[in-house]
Design brief:
Keywords: Cell membrane, Disulfide bond, Heme biosynthesis, Iron, Membrane, Metal-binding, Oxidoreductase, Transmembrane, Transmembrane helix
Distance between the termini: 57 Å
Structural class: mainly alpha
Pfam families: COX15-CtaA
Pathway: Porphyrin-containing compound metabolism
Protein name: Heme A synthase
InterPro entries: COX15/CtaA_fam, COX15/CtaA_HemeA_synthase
Length: 304
């Protein structure tokens, strides 16, 4: 148990982030392969057993594998929490950012259970994904904070830059929400018999695309303003977000023209989490840590 931020603490922060992204990818695989009800009850896989059996087919292995992965997330989260335990009073930010994933595994499991028991209700499935996005964002913040010191922070950018970053973040959230609703109206229900939300898919796709281009526009303006103000930390995250968005737009166009192939939809889901993390960190970096002033040495007294 270290008494300060060490390379081990940094590595565990990265592991928290990686596992949160991984669970999004495997959760997408469950849905996109139609394995959402591979285990048809919760918390057990069947009425008689917590584990699946070969007679249940490949879908049960995919769903049960995703459930099992939550144990990996919990182990990593607990290790990260233990790693910061000794200096939790000096770094309460790191403490709470490791408490959240440690507790969220149980919350996510409950939401996942409700998802199964509701027969893959598209709105519950959407909430499940949205909560995963939030956890990826907080894990990204944990990674950022292990590389920065503690202490109060103050606004370090101009009002136009701050407002533009906020607009990019808001448009990004709207884009992701619209993407969730669009997926909830499409063919990938997670199971052949699962209901859809009944919304018009083509109209949602259009609105979703407009919101994504709005996000790209405001992020590009934020990048320009950040460069002009030499706010290089914001330049880093807005640049990252634009790179993710360009790939995201390419994947979105491809999946629309290729009738939503599962692999591309899964990539789209993971990229949405990475985009949310980038935009959030850009917003976080608008406030910088106050550096304590170094006391000046007293002037020498004149000789008598």
């Amino acid at each position: 148990m270290p008494d300060r931020v060490t390379s081990r603490v940094k590595a565990l922060a990265w592991w928290v982030f990686a596992t949160q992204v991984l669970i999004v990818a495997t959760g997408g695989a469950v849905r996109l392969t139609g394995s959402g009800l591979g285990c048809d009850t919760w918390p057990k896989c069947t009425d008689e057993s917590f584990v699946n059996n070969p007679a249940m087919g490949i879908h049960s292995y995919i769903e049960f594998g995703n459930r099992t992965l939550f144990f990996l997330l919990e182990i990593v989260a607990i290790l990260a929490l233990l790693a910061v335990w000794r200096f939790r009073k000096q770094r309460p930010d790191l403490f709470w950012l490791t408490v959240v994933p440690a507790l969220s595994v149980f919350i996510q499991a409950i939401i996942g259970g409700i998802t199964v028991l509701s027969g893959l209700n598209p709105y519950v499935v959407g909430i499940h994904f949205l909560s995963s996005v939030v956890l990826v964002v907080l894990a990204a913040l944990l990674v950022l904070r292990v590389y920065t010191g503690p202490g109060p922070r103050k606004l370090a950018v101009s009002a136009p830059l701050l407002q533009t970053v906020w607009l990019a973040a808001i448009f990004g959230f709207v884009t992701i929400t619209l993407g969730i609703l669009t997926t909830g109206s499409g063919p990938h229900a997670g199971d052949g018999g699962a209901a859809r939300n009944g919304l018009e898919s083509e109209a949602l796709q259009t609105v979703h695309a407009v919101a994504s281009y709005g996000t790209l526009l405001f992020t590009a303006v934020a990048l320009f303003l950040a460069r002009s103000e030499r706010a290089y930390r914001i330049v880093r995250w807005t640049g990252w977000s634009i790179a993710v968005m360009l790939v995201q737009i390419g994947v979105g166009i491809a999946q629309a023209r290729l009738a939503l192939p599962p692999l591309l939809v899964g990539i789209h889901m993971v990229l949405a989490c990475l985009l949310a993390a980038g935009l959030f960190l850009a917003l976080v970096e608008t406030r910088q840590r106050l550096t304590p002033a170094v006391p000046s040495s007293p002037a020498p007294e004149p000789a008598a």
